Amino acid sequence: MYRETEILQEAVAGDLIINVGPQHPSTHGVLHLVITLNGETIKKVEPHLGYIHRSIEKMCESLTFRQFIYVTSKMDYLSSHINNHGCSLCVEKGLQIEVPERAQVIRVLMDELTRLASHQLWWGALGMDVGALTPFFHAFRERELINDIFEETCGTRLTMNYMVPGGVMADLHPNFQRRVHEFIKQFKQKFDEYDELLTDNIIFKNRMQGVGVLSAADAVSYGCTGPVARASGVSSDIRKLYPYEIYNKLQFDEVIETAGDCYSRYMVRMKEMRQSLSIIEQLIDQIPEGEYQAKTKAVLKLPKGEYYSRVETARGEFGVYIVSEGGTTPYRIKFRSPGFSNLSALDHMARGGKIGDLVAIMGSLDLVIPDIDR
Amino acid sequence: MTKEELKNKLTEIIPAAALDESGEWLSMTVAADALLSNAEVLRNNADLNFDYMFSLTCIDWKTNLQMVYHLTSTAHHQPLVLKVELNRTNPEIETVSHIWRTAEFHEREVYELFGVIFLNHPDLRLLILPDGWEGKNPLRKDFEDAVNMIKL
């Protein structure tokens, strides 16, 4: 954490050290940055984490293979379906459970709706970060529809806890298909407005283009994934590279941009929303009949060994590493969170830039702090 | 590249490698003092080209600690698990943060949660835990904290 003396030793006369956060609107949560400035130029950005550290990995060591999945919704709360999905996949890998096709389709539908909802929130919040207040209200109008869909089927709107080892917890609500069709119709109409509001806005472009450039080699070295890596031209979509569930049967493109600046990261997410929408359209009328959950034992015991599963959340690659000793609880569990690695590249991106650009860079990274701290 | 092809390449390039095929991915165990030289080969050899580290963590086996590095390549996409056994009382290992920059943050995390000292690390300080936690390593199995820990 923050040690005043060390920071001050590094600074030279005339440098200014400022603290952004842990309570600051642009950090979207309790992130603390110590920034060394010379005039308006950033010399160093040092993240100090831990303000929402709950040691979820330690907690999971005393939870069973069914229970621990519910804690993971609280990590990346904007991708909670996908977190649950990754954990379920890891347990299924250990127990070699076949997931029924209906459950697989439901899972992919939920994942893509989550990705849309997450990107919508990011889009609204990014607009607000760079001084455009209107997008926030537009984004939340459509996001609300997705939350309603989740609420009907899962019972909750944010931390869903819907995916369980073997499938999903309950069958879809009878209204599900109708609601999703309504959402698709409305979102398609409104999505063009998103472009009018921000994408082609000259003020917005000036704030984003050429700012916070990350080269492809650096993106790989810093372990960046998701839209951050893809904006630098690195192919990193787990859905394409290591397909899980039914993703290899679906038609969608991995969106890749090459400039590596904030605007590229913005464009990747905007285009990804259209891809997610297309996946939902492919599946929504093709949900197969059948079981929504495979038959599993009441008490799950993973055979001795280690298991790793990877899924693509809205922020990048989420990994679950389980080491089992053959008991009912994991011996060690590690969550590889996308935000943690993406944040480590922040200093590199912001160095030499202006303090005003830092907010744009952070907005384009789409950080979720509980996901970073875990 | 498949797991089998990777195994053949590895035995050719690093003949001394101790490989284990039991898991989903190929796993390779090296001694702590050989980590750096092996890591450099894995990263820089044009055939192996492990340029992307997607996970770095540690496991406390009560008798010893074990570092686990998950590597993959943006060229061939076949992952490799690199493992290093460490002494539990005085765990020290060379940093790999100059090879994979992402290791810098991950090693700081392992340093505070497991007490592993990374030699030549550019900035080995607490990252997540508050000041004064040096020496107490929450993810070790014998860690007890009456105030902050909830037992379920």
Summary tags:
heterodimer, A: 374 residues, alpha+beta, three-stranded antiparallel beta sheet, 13% strand, disordered N terminus, B: 152 residues, alpha/beta, five-stranded mixed beta sheet, two-stranded parallel sheet, 7 strands, 22% helix
Q: Explain this structure to me?
A:
With 374 residues, chain A is an alpha+beta fold. Chain A has one domain (53-372): Cytochrome-c3 Hydrogenase, chain B (Orthogonal Bundle), CATH 1.10.645.10. In chain A, 48% of the residues lie in helices and 13% in strands. Chain A is built from 16 helices and eight strands. A three-stranded antiparallel β-sheet of chain A has the order 1-2-3. In chain A, helix 5 runs antiparallel to helix 6. Chain A is globular. The two termini of chain A are 16 Å apart. The model of chain A is unreliable at 1-8 (pLDDT under 50). Chain B has helices at 3-13, 35-44, 103-114, and strands at 18-20, 26-30, 52-60, 64-72, 80-87, 92-94, 117-119. In chain B, a hairpin with a 7-residue loop joins strand 4 and strand 5. With 152 residues, chain B is α/β, with parallel strands linked by helices. Chain B has a five-stranded mixed β-sheet with strand order 1-2-5-4-3. In chain B, strands 6-7 form a two-stranded parallel ribbon. Chain B is built from three helices and seven strands. The A-B interface holds A 1, 3, 6, 48-50, 53, 55, 57-59, 62-63, 67, 93, 218, 220-223, 225, 234-236, 241-242, 305-308, 310, 317, 319, 321, 323, 331-332, 334, 336, 340-341, 343-345, 348, 373 and B 22-25, 51-55, 57, 59-60, 68, 70, 74, 77, 100-102, 104-106, 125-131, 138-139, 143, 149-152.
